[in-house]
Amino acid sequence: MRWVIYWSVVLTLAVMVAHAAARPSDGADTAVLTSTIHPNLAIPDGRAILLGLGILAIAYTYQRIWLNWRRGVAG
Q1: What was the pLDDT predicted at 26?
Q2: Residue 24: left (phi > 0), alpha (psi -120 to 50), or beta?
Q3: Residue 64 Cα to chain centre, angstroms
Q4: Please, which contacts does 48-52 make with residues 24 or more away whose CB atoms are closer than 8 Å?
Q5: CA 46 to CA 18: how far, in whole Å?
């Protein structure tokens, strides 16, 4: 049951991060940067999806390391 909670939290985090990365922020710093450096600071959707998948891959790696370490300690 722990793995269901773990993957639910990780999946929620990955979706939130990808969604936040896909849209530009509305801060004052963005307005200054937009006018001087680049007209569109938003990350394209494809890159935001890759960011979410990267978070899932890191979570999977940490889970595998944790399970292998627990098996080595108990065994």
Answers
A1: 58
A2: beta
A3: 18
A4: 48/18, 48/19, 48/21, 48/22, 49/18, 51/17, 51/18, 51/21, 52/14, 52/15, 52/17, 52/18
A5: 10
**How far is it, in rounded angstroms, from Cα 13 to Cα 58?**
12
Q: What is the CA radius of gyration of the chain?
A: 18
Place of tokens 């890759």: 50
Instruction: Report pLDDT for 4.
Output: 86
Q: Copy the structure tokens of residue 71.
A: 């098996």
Type of residue numbered 56: L
In a structure prediction context, what are the per-residue pLDDT tens digits for the chain, which is 75 residues long?
Answer: 788 888 898 888 888 888 877 766 555 455 544 455 555 555 566 777 888 888 999 999 998 888 888 788 765
**How far apart, in whole angstroms, are the C-alpha atoms of residue 38 and residue 8?**
36
